[in-house]
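--- STAGE predict ---
source: upstream dedup step, 1 unique chain passed
mode: sequence only
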Amino acid sequence: MRIIAGAWRGKTLTAPPGSTTRPTADRVRQSLFDMLRHAPWSGHDLLDGAHVLDAFAGTGALGLEALSRGAAAAIFFERDRAALACLRANVAACGAASRARIIAGDVLRPGPGQAQSLIFLDPPYGEGLVQRSVNILRAEGWLRAGSVVVAESSATDSVLDLVVETGILLHHRLQGAAQLLVWRE
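--- STAGE serialize ---
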């Protein structure tokens, strides 16, 4: 696993052994970030200077990719100790410590926060965590009108209902056992 593009292009990222952490594959990240940069509803403004929240961060690949491509700052939530150790090592390896804040805790209990412009949600599948985390992050001030949310979940999760209730669907794609949704709050 590596950073695909930007200032840290080619930088190798570490991941904990086992299947507890499920890093987003390089080709999926490439496709996602190409879309975030070039889709009609996005453009350079979406990433350049963005304030990113990488919830369920794992290795931090999504937030670090955003920083590499011009985001101003990223906040990472991770509670698993092995993933947290890799996340810290990856942030250090990229020299991103001054632009990254790592919160060793549960994103379902984030406490009050400042609204972020780009939010990545890649929780464990099949537990309804996208909807729960969005509701909690909104209530605690981490999301605002205009925030763009990128969520990966099981293809069987009913996340589209959440988007219809709360925002404007920008993109929806099924990828095998997963679905990728992008919406604007």
